[in-house]
């Protein structure tokens, strides 16, 4: 059998690497992947690795296979197989001591994984590190392989590819910490071998986080530290030396490393050597990757020692100056490394927690002012440096979409740094620095020989990025900036930024003195933007929205001009290049202005704004049902979405309610003729939802007809949007006694038809939107009208339905179901929920054992681990509501899990978590503790399959407890 499998593996590898037919190569790859999960893979991979005739392709595949088997499938082996596996891997490590390197690395990872799985005593006294020490001394000819294993051991503690229990992983970390001195001694002993220098540095970097027992003063004089720091000036070993130095920096500030004073001997020597690299940052002959490595070191130093730097000593300022040197580099990948430092420094300088040790408020304020005075010039320099990094390149028009995306990313990153600077400097001072840039750029823009718009655009981009931080009382710079905008050339990218700048300062424009007459010329610029290109139109329409929101009262006397702009944009004629999506900004702009009008004027204005939206819909309806059914959805939704914006933003409930009543026949025609069309129904339901949200109970004259429409159409077409529209209706009208009859009918009809659709997990998976909106609606019913919902048969059926769908993989649908269940369990303990306790108890007690089994299955693998908190909360709610009963249900379910998955101690721990949840543990605590049990049950695919086969979350008729697997 083994010989046959070995031959097949060889054939598959030959086909994978050498067959000319793609389909055969694909089939071979699929077979090899499946083979790696079999029991035979252990023996075949081991045998081929020992076979002298195996070629490189076979060796690489088999070493990867053996490594992955040890990592994830170690539990497949009999209990006594450890020793023979250890011996075989040891022989292989020596065999591949001199290569191939890829194979040797996989063998080392396999040995490290084996060490994670088994207790320390299985390796002899002192564990694997002592074993390795003995072997290195006894067989120095195999030093290369042994040293690589020494490097890999600490790296593998954080590898979750290894299917080890959490406590075993913690124990392994503890074992390595106890052996750190031995490892460091081995590395020190290898220092004298030149060809091993890079490996020694790499090993020291790996082991540093386990060196808790070595003091900072010892490290400061340690030969390995000296070798690493001296290697910072070596091109050959720079990267490895940087890695060690970076780890040393982190070690001085890591949790449990002691006080700053205790770490100071090491900190001082690290800072001294790093500062000695400053000239290399500016060395044009230096390789870019080496410059990146040095820049990373400066960034690490700055971020780690920011609390010390923020004290403002002379040495601190030298470090800040060096970081400014890094920030001045032209490459984004290099200068952006410092951005997190500037953010942390800003936060340290402005937050009160940094100064609590100074005692009194007077002392705190004095110290804060002293530090800010020291660092403000540095942040001014920072602003000046980064503001030039956002200029459009001359060849921007040739950029690919990916390059343009990268350029936008640079701008967003620079914007964040500018905002950090404004927190230290204040918006007005930052504006002053940037205005100097703008003035210089404006001169360049008017240069007759070589006019350049890019510097002006860059300065304006930075100015608009800090707009929210600039005081609305600012009267020196912004009037000059605003008067400059109409004078700038209408280059597309520049005009786009000018429009964005206008929008960004809308609040300042509203507060500006009337005598400045700022607004009219700015509106002219926005008009120009809307007619230049789609990009400028997008920026202009967004700016127009902001201007109307913040300067709405200034527009109330000039509605005719606004309506003219609006009608041109909406009609699509007149030269504007506003897309239908961007036109929504203009709809919103007019809507917020209408909100400022008195009711009578608002009625007239609302009619005017609605006409260009309603008229095209009515024209389509008048062409007959057949035409209305055949037009593309886009022809309807473009108008309905505008109606949504109007209903959402005109805050005159009575006026909007009248408009909804007036336009209801139009909306009803679309409902009736397009109910099959998901896109149109989603759009029109969204419009109705905003109408309900804005109008509230003033919409009573239309709500009955709307609910009747929803009920009828849902029965025929099962569109999920009818459910989410109903959720909004329930929220507004749920507690209104006059609507009880309507809502009772709505709830009964919608839910009765939904549960017919969702009978099995396959049904849920096929209709996740229905499931999501159904259970959002059910939760709304519990919160807003439990009296109409909870005492009904439909409530009980929805709980049964939820049990079938708990393990749906669709994230939002799953969260809605879990939220509904926790709402059910929490209801009896709510302020008004006592009336429902007996009813809920009756339902849950009948289903508790099955429900608990499904929830435990969800926790242990039926749902992704990302859903852990939501699952934990349901179990927490269930435990609090049903105490001892829940504990019994959980015990039954946990006992189904096979003993090879959970030990007796782990079962007891699992039950204790549930018991503690019932007695008041917090959600955070319960989630963390459940997380460990969840990891145990998911540690590899075999284990996860065993758990799910035992719990069978989709088998709702399962009642008999099977015997545990042996």
TrEMBL record:
Per UniProt, the keywords (alphabetical) are: Nucleus, Protein transport, Transport
**Which portions of this protein are annotated as coiled-coil regions?**
none
Q: Please tell me where this protein is predominantly located.
A: nucleus
What Gene Ontology biological process does one annotation of this record name? protein import into nucleus
Q: Does the keyword Transport apply?
A: yes
Localization terms from the record: Nucleus
> Pfam families from the entry?
IBN_N, TPR_TNPO3_IPO13_2nd, TPR_TNPO3_IPO13_3rd, TPR_TNPO3_IPO13_4th, Xpo1
Q: Taking every annotated instance into account, which residue ranges of this chain make up the domain Exportin-1/Importin-beta-like? A: 100-244
- Residue ranges occupied by any Importin N-terminal domain in the UniProt entry: 28-79
Cellular component GO terms held in the UniProt record: nucleus
Similarity section = Belongs to the importin beta family.
The protein's name: Transportin MOS14
